[in-house]
Amino acid sequence: MKTNRTFTMIKPDAVENGYIGAILAKINEAGFKIVALKMTQMSKRDAQLFYAVHAQRPFFSSLVDFMVSGPIVAAILEKENAVEDFRKLIGATNPADAEDGTIRKLFAASIQNNAIHGSDSDENAMIESYFHFATREMF
Ligand code: ATP
Ligand code: MG
Fold first, then answer.
1. Ligand 1 — pocket residues by CB below 6 A?
2. pLDDT tens, position by position, 61-74
3. For the domain that residue 21 is a member of, what is the CATH number?
4. Could you tell me the pTM of the whole model?
């Protein structure tokens, strides 16, 4: 996969609250091109694998329960410097600390229910993209 790409999920809280369209518009306005997109629901095993790096953290089982609680929207986004620029666009993990205008400031309710995921490295962007999409679903 190209390295000018990142992976994102609109999390169950933001889907439930009706923010899919508004968040995708923000993503497009910020100059990202959507090159893969799907609405799906993670299984418990999916969520445990996806967030395996946090398995020892006290919030892990609550995070897994949250991530499987409803559908998500997964997407692959293309832009120069995609990973870093997208982390800036979504804002801090805790929406209380997120800068004005960021997606989490606008649409997130709490540190756990924080509306959106963004990959933290080119390597993880690739791993996470192939976790959710087949090659034929990436454009
Ligand atoms: P993401 O990986 O989803 O983009 P992030 O990189 O900003 O978020 P991480 O540290 O990777 O933050 O945490 C993964 C997710 O776990 C967070 O987005 C949030 O949903 C949840 N989380 C993180 N810290 C806490 C916490 N202290 N309490 C509850 N949930 C948390
Ligand atoms: Mg993370």
1. 54, 59, 63, 93, 111-112, 114, 117-118, 120
2. 999 999 999 999 99
3. 3.30.70.141
4. 0.97
